[in-house]
Amino acid sequence: MRKEDPSILTYRTKILLFSIALVTFTCALVLSVVFQGGRQLMVEQIQRNVRLIAADAAARVDVALHESIRNAGEEGSEAYRKVEQALRNVRDRYRREGFEVSFIYTVRPGPEGSGNWVYVVDAEERGDRKSLIGDPFVYEADNPLDAKPELVPHSFADRDFTHDAFGSWLSGSAPLKDENGKVVAMVGIDIRADEVMAETNLVFSQSAFAGSLALLVGIGGSIALARWATRPVSEIVDALARIGRGELGERVTVTRKDEFGKLGLAVNAMAKSLEQQLALKGALSRHVSRDYSRQILSSRNLPGSAGHEKEVTVIFCDIRDMGALAESLKSDEIVPFLNEYFRVMVDAVFSNGGTLDKFTGDGFMATFGALGDAGEHRLNAVHAAVLIHREHTRLVTEWREEGEMPLQLGIGIHSGFAKVGDAAEAGSMAYFATGEAVEMAARVEGLNRRLGTACLISGTTKRGLERFFEFVGVSEIPGIAGDETLSLFTLREMVECPFCEDSGVLLPA
Question: Where does 303-494 sit in CATH, by number?
Fold first, then answer.
């Protein structure tokens, strides 16, 4: 299980926090809209009722009688009692219908120039709450009663509730007009809004409960969504971590067809490609140098697995007198001895772009021009042969000084067409090269002992290389088909015993 840095927010945590914030904001927004909308509907309904009640009361008041009431102390007059009764009748009727009309009264402008309003008739029964004629009218809401009467020609209701020590109220008014249509006074009503506010609060409480429930459901859904959305990411991250540790057989289980499924398939394809490249790299490392292996892998210029014909140069290198050497050395000395010897020989092949095909008992086979760009495969092969001979001479000199038996080396080089490719062996890659060129190279190498040479180079390889090396003609042999001859040469620096140059002697095949 991988450990996560606690200072870094994971993708799942980010999705979860974002989802919770979004759900919380949405629930709060819906709750606010529902509450404000419901409250506004209630207020608007009460406002309509207030205007209707005020207008109804104004229609039932005898304006002439009302205007005859002018002085303080006239509460006992006939005109006052009639106007008072008319207001009470309206109040009581609407109370029976369920509208809590708390106060109903009339007001008129105060002394001219004062800008104030005073009570005229108050339908309230006797007591401290009843206003008398001439009492100043104090209005706390945004009612236009502080303006001139002619500017209030229609019924009016407050836009919001008024709150005082006695509760919450919604007030309204309607004009009283004389026979000439002039506004001379106003009928005012106050409706108690406590019950409405209680209903509003109940609606808010219910909305809050529903919002909280929705928030809990939303948070639970957010957690489930975050887990569902990030599970494939976690699986992919874990798979990539294992792939990074070298477990290239790791695969992501793809169960979805969305973008995460495509990402999982891409990771699997990448792991498979890396696995194949690692197998190919391992196979190439046994046949070519590390640098050349990287070059081949980057260029992807590889022979097909089925093999194909290609002109190459083949080298066979053989150690002579290996049996005698084995008898002269202890068993625990043979392996280190051969490891050192073949290491320098193979390095000479790799350093010249050659491919190690296989080891052949006491020697090995190498191919030049089989992989990648063939280039100067004949020139590279001869360079490799020169380097092999020099390294062999150096090692023999060192071993002679140490008292070891010196080895004789035989090198055969031939150029021609061969079938080259790679094949799977036990889950790995194995390189091969077969054909006439390989057979002829092996045959040429085998003639070194008979001709007393260390290296034999066929005429097909020598062609065009005269400006690079000094060749010495050795002999001619029949070709594979027997209808042509093949010239053999060695290099001047590799001549180890006298022989007749360009003797022209045909050796038996």
Answer: 3.30.70.1230
**Can you give the pTM of this predicted structure?**
0.46
Q: Which CATH number fits domain 13-199: 3.30.450.150, 3.30.450.20, 1.10.10.10, 3.40.50.970?
A: 3.30.450.20
- Token digits of residue 73: 């102390």
**Structure tokens, 196:** 């409405």
pLDDT in tens, 250-287: 777 777 777 667 777 777 777 777 666 665 555 545 54
Compute the distance between CA of residue 406 and CA of residue 400 in angstroms, rounded to an integer: 6
Instruction: Please state, in angstroms and rounded to a whole number, the distance separating the CA atoms of residues 15 and 171.
Output: 51
Q: How far is CA 491 from the centre of its chain?
A: 64
Asked if 475 and 451 touch (Cβ cutoff 8 Å), the reply is: yes
Distance CA 246, CA 238 (A): 13
Domain ranges of the chain: 13-199, 303-494
Query: Please, which contacts does 240-248 make with residues 24 or more away whose CB atoms are closer than 8 Å?
Result: 240/267, 241/2, 243/267, 243/270, 243/271, 243/274, 248/274, 248/275, 248/278
Both tokens assigned to 23: 């759900």
Please check whether residue 191 is in contact with residue 170, taking contact to mean a CB–CB distance below 8 angstroms.
Answer: yes
Closest by Cα among 476, 474, 285, 463 to 377: 463
For 478-496, write each residue's pLDDT tens digit. Answer: 876 666 788 899 998 887 5
Sign for the CA dihedral angle at 278, 279, 282, 287 comes to negative
Give the burial string for 47-63 (b: 16+ CB within 10 Å, else e): bebbbbbbbbbbeebeb
